[in-house]
Design goal:
The complex is a heterodimer of chains A (about 500) and B (about 190). Chain A is of the alpha/beta class and about 500 residues long. Chain A contains 15 helices and 16 strands. Chain A has a domain of about 120 residues: Fumarate Reductase Iron-sulfur Protein, Chain B, domain 2 (Orthogonal Bundle), CATH 1.10.1060. In chain A, a hairpin with a 6-residue loop joins strand 14 and strand 15. Chain A is globular. Chain B is mostly helical and about 190 residues long. Among the domains of chain B are: about 55 residues, 3-methyladenine DNA Glycosylase II, Chain A, domain 3 (Orthogonal Bundle), CATH 1.10.15.40; about 60 residues, Alpha-Beta Plaits (2-Layer Sandwich), CATH 3.30.70.20. Chain B has a two-stranded antiparallel ribbon with strand order 1-4. In chain B, strands 2-3 form a two-stranded antiparallel sheet. The termini of chain B are far apart. Classes of the chains: A alpha/beta (about 500), B mainly alpha (about 190). The interface between A and B is large, with 37 and 34 residues.
Chain lengths: ~500, ~190
Amino acid sequence: MLSLFSKKRIRGGVHAEQHKALTATQAIVSNFPLPEKLYIPLQQHVGKPAEPLIRVGDKVLKGQLLAYSQGMISAPVHAPSSGIILDVNDYPAPHPSALPIRMIVLETDGKDEWLPAPIVADPFQLTPEDISLRVGAAGIVGLGGATFPTAVKLNMGRENRIDTLIINGAECEPYLSCDDRLMQERAGQIIDGVRLMLHGMESDNAVIAIEDNKQEAFLAMQAAALPYPLIKVIQIPTRYPMGWDRQLIRYVTGKEVPVGCRSSEIGVTIHNVGTAYATHKAIRLGQPLVNRVITVSGGAVARPMNVEVPLGTLISELFNFCNVNSDLTARIIMGGPMMGDSLPHTGLPTVKATSGILALTQSELKNTDEQPCIRCASCVTVCPAGLRPLDMANNIRINQLDVAVDIGLKDCISCGCCSYICPSNIPLVQYFKYASGEVAARQQAQHKSEQTKRLIDARNARMERIARQQEEEERVWIAAKKERERLKAEQEALV
Amino acid sequence: MYVILAIVSLTSLGLFLGLLLGIAAKYLKVESSPVVDELESLLPGSQCGQCGFPGCRPAAEALAEGKAPATICPPGGSALAEQIAALLGMDLDLSAVKEPELLVAKVSEATCTGCTRCFKVCPTDAIVGAPKQIHAVVADACIGCKKCIEVCPTECLQMHPVEVTLRNWRWSKPALPLPEASGAVC
């Protein structure tokens, strides 16, 4: 019985087909031809969009600040190459709706000339606050896909006295292997980034967690971490969604992050390996986040690969480079197949969050021929958040959103395990995404009706004030008129 | 003797209680139904008339009497309908109610003469402008009451659906695949 409680347990999850061998065995391709135009969205992170400080026609160098962060939670945007600013306007966003979002269009000059940056001799002499500042100024955000500004997380870690930094090398999504290749090829730089993060958070211990299907990455990281006994490299079971922060924290530390709390409140913080690598480049080389490794894979891709591209590269150029057969492509996905977003076309730019672009054929897609729920409860078994997806979906179907919220809609992470396992092909995650949006829309409507009331009250008060003023003026005018008449009468009497 | 005592005591008791009730009726007088007041405070109060009643107060009265459905107020939407239903203890079937498409007014700059009539009638001050200047509608504040449309002399104000942006884009509800399944739940 004791062993049952002491054993590290994983809740839910699925064994999805890996499809990683397509790209995981080849080195990262770094000779991607520089695109003529780069489309750089001003919002590539959680929080407020960045505010542009360049003008159309300006000449910029690679790494130059294009837009500064505004507000507490935001991140700046830098030029991914040297060239001339063509436009600052609305262009389709890499989002399932492809609705427009503000972007900077940069015409590259082909020189790819870096803005000279001062090199810090020994970054460990910098104060932890300075590390956070530099990470923030480099525009680094969580590169696992959450895109939360890393500097804010480092500050929170320092304030909450973190005892363990977990580096997420799980990469549990099928097809993706960009973190795997990064760990295999650039382990030293990642470990350096981890040490800088630890310095920035005034913490000592780090655990690098890698799924046990990435043996070579594990060995490379272990070798690189050998000189630093406080940085442990461990293997974790291969099971989707192992890379979900709460699942990973539960497995590594045995602690459960309470609902509605941040992991830093229980003394743990989590960063992606890609983020650690970007931190290394920002502090050691003074290079802001302007490019990243992206996995291009899927059945319709003739040359699947991991490729390092400047941010803002259009997906169509990436597909040209990788020889994607557009006739075979049934669906384009940004991110992994489980949680990624399906995109309507390829004229959309890659952003900081883009870990992979998949071009899937019809045979790789799930059968969507929906059948009634047979209450097999497979979805309950696989839910890593411990929810009851079938009950939630049933309530949402009959528009009882309050009930769905009561039984845990807000704790759903849209990991897709339930939709994946459902034998009746019910689009469960779509129900939850729809319901979350609807709940948010209702809150907005509520807010609007309160605002409307406030506006009406303000208007009524103003109207009353104006009416009072007019009355007052009229009274004064009448009094003045009477006075004039009296004076006139007096004068006449005198005459 | 006992008879007189009983009569006197009961009469005095009756008089005393009657007096108490009389005083209570005078000092604790309820001007109007508290339910109507409460309903009126829930309603937006813009007197826009989209419900078919002359204002929010008559609408609240109709609701209290059960003559109007909880989904009476278009600007309030389903959020308000739920609040009303909870207050009145009504059953609310939102699945049968199709959320009306929210329309907002928009000024066509080509034909606006800057006559200022529209922003004088706007109940939420959603229209900004000045004499002989082109006016504009603040879409976030517009409640779609169409009062400005009625007074516009050049018909430059038109109702348009709310523009879909990344801020308000939402996932759609999955369509029900099977006729028998849809019959079972609706």
